[in-house]
# Entry
Amino acid sequence: MRIPITIVAQAWAPDSGCLATGSRRGVIKLRAAGPDGTVRTIQAHTAAIRSLLWSRDSQRLASSAEDGTAKVWNRDRGEELMKFEAAIWPGGDGKYRLPPNVRQPAATNLAWSPDGDRLAVAEDNGIIRIWDTVSRQEVHTLHGHSGPVGLTWNPRFGERLVSGATEEIKIWDTATGQELVALPLQSVRGPSPASRLPVAWSRDGWRLQAWIPAAIGAPVTVWDATPSDPMK
# Structure
């Protein structure tokens, strides 16, 4: 299977039956596995795709893009199931729009909750929005970073979301929208002070790992989530 060089994001479905790719032109392609697999093309966004992420059951694909939107797609039909967009400024006509001279923040990283009922969407300004995929409403807006962040949901403690930027890691209670703890990181020579920090939980949910990509001499930091930690 050859992938065009314009691809900027890709994600395999957990069941390995479909590969999703996203392009700089906002196009998503769903490629069925196998040499003769079918390809479904979706004009998903009006700007470059930033992230693609499958739900745990492999039936829904979330996408985020530089046009400031995040969307959820049906795998079998390629249909848009829902669209999430930050409501930034209410105008006199009741519609939301950007204030003058303010650009639309790009929707960057994504994280599904373990039960698939919530989707966390990070923006390149550091804001994280928690969307309920059942009611299709924004339930929390998290403020704590100043630039791009990585996201990961704890597989054991379903209300705990972790966000990572190069200055620190934060753990959030998504039931209340409150920050539980901030974990400072050792100063290293990384690619940028505002870089998104990859973060990942161990499969059992007891260890959290963070690392700075392309950093010279950067350590991999691992935290042990003991019962005395805020995650318990």
Observations:
- The first strand starts at residue 7 and ends at 12.
- The chain has two domains: 1-83, 105-232.
- Confidence is low (pLDDT under 50) at residues 187-194.
- Residues 1-83 form a domain with the Thrombin, subunit H fold (CATH 2.40.10).
